[in-house]
Automatic annotation (TrEMBL):
It comes from the Eukaryota. It comes from Stylosanthes scabra. The lineage of its organism: Eukaryota, Viridiplantae, Streptophyta, Embryophyta, Tracheophyta. Pfam families: Abhydrolase_3. Residues 79-304 form the Alpha/beta hydrolase fold-3 domain. Coiled coil: none annotated. This is Alpha/beta hydrolase fold-3 domain-containing protein. Belongs to the 'GDXG' lipolytic enzyme family. Gene3D superfamilies: alpha/beta hydrolase. InterPro entries: AB_hydrolase_3, AB_hydrolase_fold, Carboxylest/Gibb_receptor.
Length: 326
């Protein structure tokens, strides 16, 4: 390859500044991502044990599991968690999420399964939605089958399958919504039910600005770039029901497939008004579950991930503990 060909192959095909850069040779450079860290299994000085497990070979789906150490002599609620990152970056194995769940599980007796789903643009949506639905099926198979594929003994020995929860932040919160809509119409293995779910600062958007969005000129362009790169063929574009559950023609939110729902917003977050709109839409949809809203007025987007030791992050852990254990 001569120098001119090499230069052209590294020309930028698409870019979202500070987030991701896609080159014409197909390579992807992620500009905003914390480093990966290994799990900590059976460390005597730690209050949380963690390990990685494989859910599926084809496609490749894995997860990091977290368990209190020492393990309580009782079955624990199971939290299936989907990380954020605009569908384009971050990982269940990153320092940010590892620190968050070490802090969280040290205070709340819960078994966490943090899913490593495939990212766009290499794997455009709906790949992540398919992976996360497959992860919920994998989890349910531990209850329904005596020999589940890629079995993990922590789930068998410590998980309470009558208390299965979903959770996620930002793009992960968006995934939670879409998995709940599917759980409302499809039966899981063993007829396992999702008891509850929480959406932290969920990534929803639409073509028509609402609330404070009308005063933030750059926000629509940024959100549109992220969505178009994550899901180039989305039916309806930025008004696809997967990103805009309140769009005309979107499935009725009364079909959400769980019994308890907690929506979390932050006062300084550009996505705040979308979260509030989602809360109001669920409230007015005829959904029969228990709905609650939690707002931290002086915080910004995913502050609990960026600073898990903060006072406000600890306050939310207390609220989430009552939601999961109550």
């Amino acid at each position: 390859m001569d120098s001119s060909t090499a230069t052209k192959s590294r020309e930028i095909a698409a870019e979202i500044p500070t987030v991701v850069r896609v080159y014409k040779d197909g390579s992807v450079e992620r500009l905003r991502e914390s480093s990966f860290v290994p799990p900590s299994l059976d460390h005597p000085q730690l209050t949380v044990s963690s390990k990685d497990t494989l859910m599926s070979h084809q496609p490749s789906i894995s997860a990091r599991l977290y368990l209190p150490n020492p393990t309580p002599n009782k079955k624990l609620p199971i939290l299936l968690y989907f990380h954020g990152g605009g569908f384009l970056f971050e990982s269940a194995f990153s320092q940010a999420y590892h620190s968050h769940f070490n802090c969280f599980v040290s205070q709340v007796d819960v078994l966490v399964v943090s899913v490593e789903y495939r990212l766009a643009p290499e794997h455009p949506l709906p790949a992540a939605y398919h992976d996360c639905w497959a992860s919920l099926q994998w989890l349910a198979n531990h209850y329904s089958s005596p020999n589940p594929t890629n079995m993990d003994p922590w789930l068998i020995n410590h998980g309470d399958f009558s208390r299965v929860f979903l959770g996620g932040d930002s793009a992960g919160g968006n995934i939670v919504h879409n998995i709940l809509m599917r759980a409302g119409t499809e039966t899981l293995p063993g007829s396992v039910k999702v008891l509850g779910a929480f959406l932290s600062h969920p990534f929803f958007y639409g073509s028509q600005p609402i609330g404070s969005e009308q005063a933030i000129i750059a926000t629509p362009d940024y959100m549109l770039k992220v969505w178009n790169l994550a899901y180039p063929g989305a039916p309806g574009g930025i008004d696809c029901p997967m990103i805009n559950p309140m769009a005309d023609g979107a499935p009725c939110l009364a079909g959400i497939g769980c019994s308890k729902l907690l929506i979390r917003v932050a006062g300084k977050d550009k996505l705040r008004d979308r979260g509030l709109s989602y809360y109001d839409s669920v409230k007015n949809s005829g959904w029969l579950g228990e709905l609650d809203l939690y707002e931290e007025t002086q915080e910004d987007h995913v502050y609990h991930i960026n600073n898990p030791q903060s006072h406000t992050a600890h306050n939310f852990i207390k609220r989430l503990a009552s939601f999961l254990l109550g």
